[in-house]
Design a protein that fits this description.
The protein contains 14 helices and 19 strands. The chain is globular and about 65 Å long. The relative contact order is 0.13. The protein has a 7-stranded mixed β-sheet with strand order 6-5-14-15-16-13-17. The protein has a 6-stranded mixed β-sheet with strand order 8-2-1-12-19-18, with helices on both faces. By secondary structure, it is an alpha/beta fold. It folds into 3 domains: 237 residues, FAD/NAD(P)-binding domain (3-Layer(bba) Sandwich); 96 residues; 75 residues, no CATH class. Strand 9 and strand 10 form a beta hairpin. The longest helix is centred in the C-terminal third of the chain and has 31 residues.
Length: 475
């Protein structure tokens, strides 16, 4: 990289046959995508606005751990990384629901042994992907480089060094924005062409706290569950970490009578927890300090169109479709974006020995992923209501049990929507479409009853036969 009056040709030194891809953003999606592209023989220049997380703590209040599900595991397997990732995973078999009186109720996510999701450290997973990218020998990672402007006419990107404030420029051939919900690449694309560019605020925010390991280094609550304290308009959740601690997250309205805005003193915050989450007080020794020292994060959904610009740029991950975290699918969806691009590239290379038509490729990836990004965004918001409220409702629990039973009896036709999303690789849009139909079936079968034994399974068979086609769970 050169000073602001100079330009660096990223292609310098490469052979005629070697294509260079420029990635903006070295988070989870960008670093995994770099691995996938390098293993297909492409040279990758990867730019990241933050410092190297392998050398400095840069969590910045972001979620410490995430939920890894089957559709996120598949891309990691294709990148050859699961052997390194597996040791840092903690399986979660279901929800442990905590009521106001401190009682616990376990609700299984699935009914098969392999139907679990995994808590994983965001930072540790990111580091594995960064190491793997560099080990390919085809990926150069540039840290502390904040993308400030993209000039599509000249195929140039202007960066500012976060440590020195020096502005430099680089040339690019094809660029992929994996630079998160505040994507500079998205802004640049939509300055040129845009039919939709919405950042939809949820009106709720989040704050992270911590349940430390016990005195003897043990987990203080069940380690194989995602813990939920549902309270209607707000909730608390806790995910296990490798060190026997739990990352605890409070989700609630940003403003209003019960909100982050109203909890404006340590005393009010403590009283709030004492009233609504009493059984966590002894588990959160630094509650009052953490509540005011840790940042309050916003929750928003990004919906935009298009995701690409000509043959020059493409958006993937949160840059294209940031979603709220209530289905645990943000990372998984972004990883699915990455493998879709890689496998589409494979197809194009097989079909033609000539130079890749990047405009056609970018458009195809856009078309494949756009409807799925929108679908999981909608389902994630719906699942917030499920988590903070429905999980304590008798009718919800009955439908959940009935869904498992219908899956047993009609496995080729019925699969609970949660299972379709979390344990399979069926397109999100198809999971959403089938989920609507299945909810209609469940509602009709449970109308005016609250016990599974009273369900009319003859009617169930007729409804499923009439309304559902066979399902291909792992296309």
């Amino acid at each position: 990289m050169n000073d602001s009056n100079q330009k660096t040709d990223l292609a310098t030194g490469q052979t005629d046959k070697q294509q260079t891809i420029t990635l903006i953003g070295a988070g989870l999606v960008g670093s995994l995508l770099a691995v996938l592209l390098a293993r297909r023989g492409l040279k990758v220049e990867l730019y990241e606005r933050r410092s190297d997380m392998r050398k400095a703590d840069i969590s910045a209040g972001r979620s410490i751990n995430l939920a890894l599900a089957n559709r996120g595991i598949y891309p990691l397997e294709q990148a050859g990384l699961m052997d390194k990732v597996a040791p840092i995973l903690t399986p979660m078999k279901g929800r442990m629901v905590h009521d106001l009186d401190g009682n616990e109720n376990f609700q299984s996510y699935g009914q098969k042994e392999q139907e679990v999701i995994y808590s994983v450290s965001r930072g540790d997973l990111n580091k594995i992907c960064l190491d793997a990218a560099e080990e390919t020998g085809l990926v150069n990672i540039h840290f502390n480089q904040s993308c400030k402007k993209v000039n599509f006419e000249n195929n140039q990107i202007h960066f500012m060094n976060a440590q020195t404030n020096v502005v430099t420029s680089v040339n690019f051939e094809q660029m992929i924005g994996t630079d998160g919900s505040a994507s500079a690449v998205r802004e640049a694309i939509h300055e040129k062409e845009s039919s939709r560019h919405d950042i939809l605020e949820l009106g709720h925010s989040y704050k992270e706290l911590c349940i430390p390991a016990g005195k003897n280094g043990e987990f203080q609550i069940d380690k194989n569950s995602l813990h939920i304290w549902p309270r209607g308009g707000y909730m608390l959740i806790a995910l296990p970490n490798e060190d026997a601690s739990f990352t605890v997250t409070l989700f609630m309205p940003t403003k209003g009578e019960i909100s982050f805005e109203s909890l404006d003193s340590k005393e009010k915050a403590f009283d709030f927890f004492e009233t609504h989450f009493k059984d966590t007080i002894s588990l959160l020794p630094s509650l009052q300090e953490d509540f005011f020292e840790n940042p309050t994060g916003r929750l928003a959904t990004v919906k935009c169109e298009p995701w690409h610009y000509k043959n020059k740029a493409l958006l993937l991950g949160d840059a294209a479709h940031a979603i709220v975290p209530f289905h645990g699918q943000g990372m998984n969806c972004g990883f699915e974006d990455a493998i879709t691009l890689a496998e589409t590239l494979d197809k194009f290379q097989i079909e033609s020995n000539q130079k890749i038509d990047w405009k056609k490729l970018f458009k195809e990836v856009d078309n494949k992923r756009k409807e799925n990004g929108d679908a999981i965004a909608d389902m994630a918001i719906e699942n917030y209501i499920t988590m903070r409220d429905s999980v304590r409702d008798e009718k919800f629990l009955l439908k959940n049990a009935l869904g498992f039973e219908l899956e047993k009896q009609f496995p080729d036709f019925f699969c609970p929507r949660y299972s379709m999303v979390m344990f399979h690789r069926l397109a999100y849009s198809e999971a959403k479409r089938r989920g609507v139909i299945q909810e209609e079936i469940l509602s009709e079968l449970t109308d005016n009853i609250l016990e599974l034994e009273l369900v009319d399974f003859n009617l169930a068979e007729k409804l499923i036969s009439k309304k559902l086609t066979q399902v291909n769970l792992n296309p």
